[in-house]
């Protein structure tokens, strides 16, 4: 992976435009920041706030000026309480300053003033925990996400909506049929596409589609937005799986690796080499 200059955010650019530029400049790769207790142990770090901080600082220092996207998993920071959230704030801030796009993996979903508060927490520029984009759950109805989508639009942020997840329990809900014959997942896909319909380049409302879902027959062709693809590497998905799944979506797919890269720490060169291998595999599969 060759070093690329940072991709600075611009208030005049939408999230979709910034993401597309980052993927073009640095290649189609997102690296998750998932400080599992087992990973901390593997790195020789204590399962504590100090271990969490050392882990996150090392990953950001090694990769944030090289990869297009990084994705901290909020839960692994939250488990340490306020001190862990403080580390998360610092991690997001440092990663963004280094030029990578940060998607906060929080999977929040609620209604009314509560979801509005989540939107302000994760997407308002005045929030200490603000990221470039956030993952959300639509299972209180897609319309419940309106405050998050509005907040994102107001500040040039992005939203990634869970659509087709790779956990075995997912299909019982996501593949269920609605009254008009579409699956629940297809209604989510179509609602996201409607949000992006007027975007001049790439819309800022994306979807989360697991790498291991297989060919489900869902139609993403009208999305005009990015697709975040977790589940690659240690979770069982392979880069080659994306060839069939996303054959009509080249250039907007954001493949995400976590343990497959993170397990090669704590040395920075090991992390960089693993990220290089993951990026090479994704480029071969998507181009």
From TrEMBL:
Its EC number is 4.1.1.23. Pathway: Pyrimidine metabolism; UMP biosynthesis via de novo pathway; UMP from orotate: step 2/2. It comes from the Bacteria. The active site is at 107 (proton donor). Keywords: Decarboxylase, Lyase, Pyrimidine biosynthesis. Coiled coil: none annotated. The keyword Transport does not apply. It catalyses: orotidine 5'-phosphate + H(+) = UMP + CO2. Residues 28-274 form the Orotidine 5'-phosphate decarboxylase domain. It holds the Pfam family OMPdecase. Belongs to the OMP decarboxylase family. Type 2 subfamily. This is Orotidine 5'-phosphate decarboxylase. It comes from Luedemannella helvata.
């Amino acid at each position: 992976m060759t070093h690329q200059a940072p991709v600075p955010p611009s208030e005049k650019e939408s999230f979709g435009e910034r993401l597309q530029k980052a993927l073009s400049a640095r290649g189609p790769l997102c690296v998750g920041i998932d400080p599992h207790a087992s990973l901390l142990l593997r790195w020789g770090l204590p399962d504590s706030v100090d271990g969490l901080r050392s882990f996150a600082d090392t990953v950001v220092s090694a990769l944030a000026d090289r990869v297009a996207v990084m994705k901290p998993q909020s839960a692994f920071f939250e488990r340490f309480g306020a001190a862990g959230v403080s580390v998360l704030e610092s991690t997001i801030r440092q990663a963004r300053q280094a030029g990578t796009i940060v998607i906060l993996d929080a999977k929040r979903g609620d209604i009314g003033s509560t979801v509005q508060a989540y939107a302000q927490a994760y997407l308002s520029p005045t929030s200490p925990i603000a990221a470039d984009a956030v993952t959300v759950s639509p299972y209180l109805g897609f319309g419940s996400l309106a405050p998050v989508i509005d907040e994102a639009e107001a500040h040039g942020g992005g939203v990634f909506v869970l659509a087709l997840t790779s956990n075995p329990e997912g299909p019982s809900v996501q593949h269920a049929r609605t009254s008009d014959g579409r699956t629940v997942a297809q209604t989510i896909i179509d609602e996201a596409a409607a949000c992006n319909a007027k975007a001049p380049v790439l819309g800022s409302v994306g979807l989360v589609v697991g790498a291991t879902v297989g060919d489900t027959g869902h139609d993403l062709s009208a999305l005009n937005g990015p697709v975040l693809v977790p589940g690659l590497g240690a979770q069982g998905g392979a880069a080659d799986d994306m060839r069939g799944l996303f054959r009509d979506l080249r250039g907007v797919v954001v493949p995400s690796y976590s343990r497959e890269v993170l397990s090669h720490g704590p040395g920075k060169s090991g992390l960089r080499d693993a990220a290089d291998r993951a990026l090479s595999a994704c480029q071969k599969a998507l181009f």
